[in-house]
Every structure is written in C-alpha cells, then in structure tokens.
Amino acid sequence: MHDILFKHLEEKVTLTPGEKELITTFFASKKLKKKQFLVVEGHVCKYLSFVTKGLLKAYNTDEKGNEHINQFTPEGWWTSDMNSFFRGDISFYSIDAMEDSEVLVITSEDFENLTLQVPVMDRYFRLLFQNSLITKERRLISSYTHTAEEKYKHIVEKNPDLIKRVPQNLLASYLGLSPETLSRLKKNVFPGHK
Amino acid sequence: MHDILFKHLEEKVTLTPGEKELITTFFASKKLKKKQFLVVEGHVCKYLSFVTKGLLKAYNTDEKGNEHINQFTPEGWWTSDMNSFFRGDISFYSIDAMEDSEVLVITSEDFENLTLQVPVMDRYFRLLFQNSLITKERRLISSYTHTAEEKYKHIVEKNPDLIKRVPQNLLASYLGLSPETLSRLKKNVFPGHK
DNA sequence: AAATTCGATTGATCCAGATCAATTATTTAT
DNA sequence: ATAAATAATTGATCTGGATCAATCGAATTT
Fold this sequence. Notes:
The structure is a homodimer.
Chain A: H1 3-12, H2 17-26, E1 28-32, E2 37-39, E3 47-53, E4 55-61, E5 67-74, E6 78-79, H3 82-87, E7 94-97, E8 101-107, H4 108-117, H5 120-145, H6 148-158, H7 160-165, H8 168-175, H9 179-189
Antiparallel strand pairs in A: 1-8, 2-7, 3-6, 3-8, 4-5, 4-7
Helix pairs in contact in A: 6-9, 8-9
Chain A binds a DNA duplex through helix 9.
C-alpha cells in the first residue's frame, strides 16, 4: 500500500527504515469510487493526497458555470488544493475520482509534524514543488503563446498515456479549449485517421 | 547586503548565527545596470538570484518574435530560469534589469551544497516554492477564465506598487495582452481619469 | 535644446476560437 | 437488451482581442 509512495520518495531522497516506519504512521488510506469527491469547492481542503491507484481530477467552476480542469492526477502523483490545505482558506477547486481510486492522505497538522520529525521530507517536497513549478510555468507560457492545435499536439506527445484515460471534453477543459474546438482540430492533426 | 536576504529567510525559518555565517559564504553579490542581462535565452542559467535592490524581468521570445514576460522580480524576491538552473538545460528565458539593481547569486553546485550543509534551507525553499506554486496556479486559471479587463483590474488591486514601476506595454505582455488592448480597456476601468 | 528612440493612444480590420444548435455515437443504468 | 444519459461531431454564426497603421507624447541621447 505504501510501497508506491516509498518508491516515489526514494527517487528523490534516501530514507532510513526508521523514517519509513514513521512516515507510514502519518498517512491514512482512502478508497474513492468513481465520481466520489475528495474535496468540494468552498470547503476547506483537509488532505494532501498521494494517488496509489486510479485517476483524479481537480477543477474549478467559474461564474458562468464553466468547469476548468486544473490537474489530472494518476497513480504516483500528489493532489490537493494547496492554497486551502496550507493556508486553511476555502477550497477553490473540487477534486473527484474519474476512476475507482485509492489515495494516501495526510492532514495539514500531520504534514507539519512529519516535516519536523523527518526533515528530509522538506527536501523531498522542495524537489517536488520545484518540479511542479517548472511544469506549471511552462503551461502558463504555453497558454499565451501556443495555438489550440499546438497545445493539443504537445500534450499528445508528452502524455500519450493520459490521453487514453481522459474523455476528450475534459482534455479540452484542461487545455482551456471548448470541446468543439478540440474535436475539430483533431482532423488537422491526424488527417488520415478515423 | 545580506540583511535583506536574512530578513526574508527568517520570515519562514529560524537560523542560528553559525548557519547565517555559512549561508553568507555561498552567495556572491552582483550589480546590474539597467538593461543589463543576468541570463540570456539559449545559454545555461548559472544562478539562482535574490534581488536586494531594483527590478528585473524574465521573458521569452517566441517564434514570431513576440516577447512574453514570465515574471517581474523586485527587491526581496528570487529569480532564475528554474528549469535551466536545476536541470542544466539551456535557458528558455532571458532575465534583465529594468532598473539599476543588485542581486545575490548562488550557483547550482553551491545550492546543492548549501541545502546539504544547512538542511533548513530545504525547508525554506519548500515553503517558497509551495507559495510560488499557489500563485502560478492562480495565474494559469486566470488566463483561461478571466477577460482582459478582469486580469488588469486584478493586478492593479493586488500589485499597485508594481504597476507604478512597470511600463504599460510590459504589463500587457505579462498579462498575455497586446499593448493596444490594455490601453483601450483602461478607459473602461477608470472612466473619469486622464 | 534638438533629435532620436521608445511608449501610449486611437482607428479600422481581421481572425482563432467561442457559442449556439442539431445530429450522431458511445456509455451507463435499469 | 433497452432506455436514458453523456460524449463527440459537424455546421452556422458571433466576438474579444489581435493585428496593422498612423499619430501623438514622453523620455533618452548627443
């Protein structure tokens, strides 16, 4: 259960058996059925969650009722409304399961204790956030500089795996496009294909 | 010189006198005249820089020759092309001084040594990156959901200080707008004013 | 202080992608 | 299996903001 978590932690930092044991005690396991919510927009996001199985999505609903997907989270990745989790504000995003899923969750108080008791976790999350920041920055620049078609080509190339698991309308939302636009531009990207 | 740096570090973590002394040895001071480059797009970004005076900008030039500003960095903030600095790739951004400025710089090897010798720096940067990530995420969602006018109103409200120091065409670039659009929408936001 | 460079404004036109609407798959639930 | 709900496609139209172009203003440079 925690094996996937340790595998990921140990890609970035070295852990002693004692630290591993301690880390285990901080996380609770949670099963989510498809469509079940982990966080609901407007509530406080109580958990930082590591996905061990399945696929979640985090999204915001704007004033006009349009949903904007912020993140897809498959196995081996973390998800949360960070602003809500770390600062206690109400959550801007809802997070729900796109498939039957399993997550390891930690509360913010426990997160604080974990980093104090196992300082190398600060290093792990420093590296994790550092990488996320690089990715997020790229996405932001891409949102300004790339055309709809370029954005689609790019994600197909970089995340072929994800494309297969995600309905097209939700992928459109993630890319900041309307479903119609994504449907149309596919013909240009794969002219010959069904 | 390093005082501003310590003031900022100590907002997030506690440092012993010994740690402070050690930290000091890792940073070199650098003066930049207005328009001078700290990094040039296409080269490796050698430094992570803490601005102690002045104002820098980080920007990318796309295929069509348009500049897209990624970040304005005034005193008390960090700047770098993180992907280049941490991974050694060539830099996607250029960074230059918008005013005569002073920065404290650290190389990536020294950054690695710093975090190993002063582990609490991992915590500091974990917290720093965590906050940056929250901000960057908001900007990304905003780029999809908000109109040009909303983006402008928002930044005027949140960064009134910055607005005064930044020419309008560069602010437009930061917001992903053309200078013409920003000029026009101002009339709607401040109808009475000159 | 004149000259040059750079930024801001205003007007006219254009276009990528959104929106509205209808039709046809494809899932999901019963 | 059948019905109901949801997703994808296609067509027609609209629009926010970009682009092109000219003028005006402000700041640097010599």
